[in-house]
Design goal:
Largest sheet: 3 strands, antiparallel
Mean pLDDT: 82
CATH superfamily of one domain: Head domain of nucleotide exchange factor GrpE
Strand content: 15-25%
Number of strands: 6
Distance between the termini: 166 Å
Shape: rod-shaped
Strand order of the largest sheet: 1-4-5
CATH class of one domain: Mainly Beta
Structural class: alpha+beta
CATH topology of one domain: Nucleotide Exchange Factor Grpe, Chain A, domain 2
CATH architecture of one domain: Roll
Radius of gyration: 49 Å
Amino acid sequence: MEELNEQQENENKETEKNNSEFDESLKQIETELKQVQEKNIELEKQLNEYKDAYLRKVAEFENYKRRVDSEQSNIFKYAAEPFIKSILPVYDDLERSLNHIVDENSFESLKKGLELVFEKFTKTLNNQGVKKIEAKGQQFDVDLHEALMQQPAEGVAPHTILDVIEQGYIYKDKVLRHAKVIVSAEVIPNDQNNNSEQNSKDENQ
């Protein structure tokens, strides 16, 4: 009987020990679970903060992109604005000159006014980098000139520009319009012409 009681007591102690160990393990698990939950809450909070920051950056980028697109569109749309502003005074002068035509005797004043407007317009174009191509008397240059015809000219070297039909212009380093010109042809001496004609007649006979 004493042995049974002792065995029962030992079993109870073992059970209590196991229960105590179980309780300790359970408490440890609960503590770790609580720490994990707190960590998850903290990570979720950080995730929301990063998400908000990301969305703000996306919105800022979209606003920046729209602003840049608008500015670029305006640059192309109003690219000619500085040039137009520079020629408006010339346009005003031309209008004033035309308004001062009151009778037939105003020809000289009109001519003088138009000359002043032309000079002002030329200066405006020069300031913008637009210059007239020098052509008359120059040697023909295919990069600057377009020959409309050739004609003989005594005392003038071949391929010299005799006259300009339409002025050409350069914008900075680019040809806007080639000058349309008449170019001198090589003059064949009369005796050489006569010899050529005689040779043609002899060949025909």
